[in-house]
Amino acid sequence: MGRQRPGLTTNKAQTMSFKLETIRSQFPALAETDDGIRRIYLDNPAGTQVPQSVAERMLDCLLKSNANLGGFFRTALLADEVVDGAHAAMADLLNAGSPDEIVFGQNMTTITLHMSRSIGLTMSPGDEIILSQMDHDANVYPWVLLARDLDLKIRWLPFDTESFEFDLTKLDELLSDRTKLVCVGAASNLTGTINDVETICRKAREAGSWAYIDAVQAVPHIQTDVQKIGCDFLLCSAYKFFGPHQGILWGRSELLQQLDPYKVRPAPDSAPGCFETGTQSHEGMAGTTAAVDYFAWIGETMGSAYYSKYADFSQRRKHVHAAMDCLFEYERGLAQQLIDGLQSIRGVTVQGISSADAQMRRVPTVSFTHDIVAPAVIAEALAQRNIFVWNGHNYAVEAAKLLGIYDSGGAVRVGPVHYNSEGEISELLNAVNDILS
Ligand SMILES: Cc1ncc(COP(=O)(O)O)c(C=O)c1O
Question: What is the crossing angle of helices 422-436 and 375-384, to 10°?
Fold first, then answer.
């Protein structure tokens, strides 16, 4: 990382050693302009920008290690290293017990559709799957399709539309001795709610069920520890955490060994290779490793205040987890600024947790609606000002229906990450104010 520059933008940032200017200098995309107008990237829940180091590592992989796996020659040996390195990096990011618990795939949705076939082989007609009404459809519809094919029963876990959180006594009511799987998101891509997945997984386990956790929207923002969560499967996507388009599954070792993989005959018989169908994107894996190394660099240079929490972790793992705590602290400030600003605009409703003392229970993804103006109209007007946001249900189909916004165009979703600044949030707020007045 030779592009480091000193300089802090806010006093608050200074106290926790978070160096925004140094961070931003790693991301070439942040300096791009269109017709001389700066870009403000608040579309991050749909995909983040990448640091230079990620793009460089991918290029390096393509130019110097481009071969298939398992050969005797130099490029094949280097490709093996790229693949092994990516499994080790993801094991560090998720605090996995072993790199063999990491399965790569094209994206979270494809991995889930694929794994659901193997998981389905352990189920019998009449068995039950609990699905959440808060989740992205990637952790909903693969299971609905499985239930259709195998004659399973779906039971729905609702969330409270006032608090935007689950009432977990409802989960107790749904769990039964027929429950085989509980599928829940760690953080919502629509409301931003962080769910208490530790308790959800404990309840599932006590009922004899596995827990399948969609952490796609949690991993970019909060420290994720599969051992602490106590889940059986956890998924994320590197392109949401400053890496390339790549999906990752962590699976509990004994379950990966026990599941029957859908694979071709010559493919490896043991995990993770037996679940990594076909030839993987080695350049994607190289980029994913670089994204984890980017977090490690943040932890090393800015995260010392959090090291004591991770004293038992080895070097990179400690730095990565300390980085996530450091980044989340900064992001909470952005989220509060954003929520306070939106709530001061007449006619705006924040579709998510908004109170200042509950910011630990949400990621900074903030969706809002307006009494009169449609989300698409607001998003388009923002795009004209070169401010990038998403609108609609964002694939959180059940959540948008439960909130009563599905038929009215969903919401405008503003998704800051740690490379966004208070100045950018102010610009967004001024623009929304202007558009709505
Ligand atoms: C919460 C959540 N889960 C799953 C997905 C799907 O991820 P992928 O694009 O890797 O399939 C998304 C994508 O936006 C998401 O936000």
Answer: 120
